[in-house]
Amino acid sequence: MINMTKKTKNVLIILFIAIILVGIYILILMFFQCSSENLKCNEFGDYVGGVLNPLFTLLSTAAIIYLTYILAINEDKKAEKSIETQKRITLNQMRQNALSTLAEKLNLFVYDMDKMTIIESKTSNFVKNVLSHSNKKKNNEKIIVWLVISSELESFLQLEYLFKELFESNEFSETYDSLREITLRLMEEEANKLLIEQTTLEKYIELKQRIITELGNYIYSEF
Questions:
Q1: 105-145 pLDDT, tens per residue?
Q2: Are 194 and 134 in contact (CB under 8 A)?
Q3: Does residue 126 share a domain with residue 212?
Q4: What is the pLDDT of residues 182-214, one digit of tens each?
Q5: Residue 61, domain extent
Q6: Which of 10, 125, 135, 180 sits at a 20 to 30 Å CA gap from 48?
């Protein structure tokens, strides 16, 4: 809108200058040629009117065409901006849906905490073996929550194009890979020992939160 205003002012200035120059030219001619003979002055006036009327009509037509062109360009720019805005809104909605699904799956472990046996790293191997053996007797079923989470982490990579700039960052990519690795370790601990190391779970929670936070910051920074 600002560009259009400047161009309009330029056109008006040019027209104003042209009118002034033509006026000065007419006055000069009238002063030198029409000071004594009224008949010649009238003839000259008709001549000038016949020349200037088409000229002003041409200038007016040119100005209207030019202003119409400027308005059309301005409308096209508005349409392009509207399309680009809608595209960004749609893209961010897709990103929000992807993040919501990922966060929901990454938090699934919370609902299965009562089924897990979490031990500290400093616990002796003897105690670990006893607990593992006891768990196998009580329940030989494997908790599949880590498998679901691991699968979601792999599936999310198919949506990498939605977060292209973020995944191009080495720091984020390394964090995401670390989260996948720690999830596989938790799945292995759960499957083989039926025990989960506390430090492993804490590391998973830390990485999970970092990933969700960075994805969220990336989405809302686009608005």
A1: 999 888 877 766 665 555 555 444 544 555 554 444 556 78
A2: no
A3: yes
A4: 999 888 877 766 667 788 889 999 999 999 999
A5: 2-83
A6: 10
User: Hey, how many other C-beta atoms are within 10 angstroms of the C-beta on 166?
Assistant: 20
pLDDT of residue 123: 53
DSSP 29-42: HHHHHSSS-HHHHH
Which residue do the tokens 């901006």 mark?
Answer: 81
Contact 146, 113 (CB under 8 A): no
Look at residue 33 and tell me whether its pLDDT is greater than 60: no
Residues 6+ apart with CB under 8 A from 92: 219, 222, 223
One domain, residues 129 and 67: no
Does one domain contain both 168 and 206? Answer: yes
The answer to whether residue 101 sits within a structural domain is no
Using DSSP, state whether 161 is helix, strand or coil: helix
Q: How far is 19 from 7, CA to CA, in rounded Å?
A: 19
pLDDT for 144: 76
In a domain, 74, yes or no: yes
For residue 46, with 0-12 CB atoms within 10 Å meaning exposed, 13-18 middle and 19 or more buried, which class applies? exposed
Q: Is 92 among the domain residues?
A: no
User: What is the DSSP code (8-state) at residue 72?
Assistant: H
